[in-house]
């Protein structure tokens, strides 16, 4: 059958027969999520405080600090900033932040019927780091603005984000900007929040890592997501071998790429990619 015809005639029934879609947990549909979503769409970001406990933050810090090495290769990565890449290939300690129901609930509202993880990083901004250049995360999808976001990002405060230590700097409502507008300092806010909190923003929202003028590092975890029909920044299918993928939650497996965008984007040999894990 020609692809064009297959799409036109697609009912979803053929896939449903052979593969069950993941059913979102009730925690992903609460009134709180609707409230967060309304704020996200109005301001371009939402801060949710105290979503994980101090002991979860301590555990993430203990596991991540030994994985940290050199500082950034340029101003954007930050010459006084350490980053861990391929985090899912190295530790399981930030998995529950990637598939946290309050975040996936927002993603369910933003990008139905499916979405992917685009990249994950641990970011440690050291004392003396200057402010990163302003940017928006889905800018590499070179489609003119204004436009709907094609991605979204969480930045989790593992250390409290303060006025001085490099709290993420965000430009409220900049998700609505056209391609001509650029940030100026007066229009920004700092995402000051207790450890265990998260800022979630659209891929079109202008932001930057803050300057760290304190005498202690600022540790954060970021997960970026994208529409399931866009290319992920991180190539999880090459980074993660099948045993690692088997160790992930069903939600994370789907997020890294063991899922499809209907009717068949992401297929392997004409079948759902999860079938590979049975082999
Ligand atoms: O660390 C932060 O607060 C933001 C970092 C960021 O936006 C980036 O590295 O692209």
Summarize the structure.
Helices cover 25% and strands 17% of the residues.
What do these coordinates show?
- The chain has helices at residues 3-8, 13-18, 31-43, 54-64, 87-90, 95-98, 101-110, 236-239, 242-247, 250-256, and strands at residues 45-48, 81-84, 115-125, 151-157, 169-170, 189-190, 198-202, 207-208, 218-227.
- The model is unreliable at 1-11 and 13-18 (pLDDT under 50).
- A 6-stranded antiparallel beta sheet has the order 1-7-4-9-3-2. It has a 3-stranded antiparallel beta sheet with strand order 6-5-8, with no helix packed on it.
- It has one domain (28-230): Jelly Rolls (Sandwich), CATH 2.60.120.620.
- The chain is α+β, with helices and mostly antiparallel strands and 279 residues long.
- The radius of gyration is 19 Å and the shape is globular.
- The structure holds 2-oxoglutaric acid (AKG).
- 2-oxoglutaric acid is lined by residues 123, 132, 155, 168, 207, 209, 220.
């Amino acid at each position: 059958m020609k692809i064009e015809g297959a799409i036109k005639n697609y009912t979803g029934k053929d896939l449903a027969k052979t593969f069950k879609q993941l059913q979102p947990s009730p925690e992903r549909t609460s009134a709180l999520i609707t409230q967060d979503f309304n704020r996200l769409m109005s301001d371009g970001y939402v801060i949710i405080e105290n979503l994980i406990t101090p002991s979860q933050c301590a555990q993430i810090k203990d596991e991540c600090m030994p994985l940290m090495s050199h500082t950034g290769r340029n101003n954007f990565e930050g010459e006084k900033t350490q980053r861990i890449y391929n985090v899912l290939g190295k530790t399981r300690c930030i998995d529950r932040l990637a598939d946290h129901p309050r975040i996936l609930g927002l993603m369910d509202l933003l990008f139905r019927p499916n979405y992917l993880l685009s990249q994950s990083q641990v970011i440690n901004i050291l004392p003396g780091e200057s402010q990163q250049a302003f940017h928006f995360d889905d800018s590499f999808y070179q489609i003119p603005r204004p436009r709907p976001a094609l991605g979204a990002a969480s930045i989790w405060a593992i250390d409290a984000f303060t006025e001085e230590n490099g709290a993420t700097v965000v430009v409220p409502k900049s998700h609505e900007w056209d391609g001509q507008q650029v940030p100026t300092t007066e229009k920004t806010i700092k995402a000051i929040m207790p450890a265990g909190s998260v800022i979630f923003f659209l891929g079109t929202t202008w932001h930057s890592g803050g300057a760290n003028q304190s005498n202690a590092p600022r540790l954060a975890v970021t997960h970026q997501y994208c529409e399931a029909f866009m290319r992920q920044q991180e190539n999880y299918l090459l980074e993660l071998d099948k045993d690692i993928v088997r160790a992930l939650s069903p939600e994370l497996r789907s997020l890294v790429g063991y899922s499809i965008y209907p009717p068949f984007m992401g297929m392997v040999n004409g079948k759902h990619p999860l079938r590979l894990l049975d082999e």
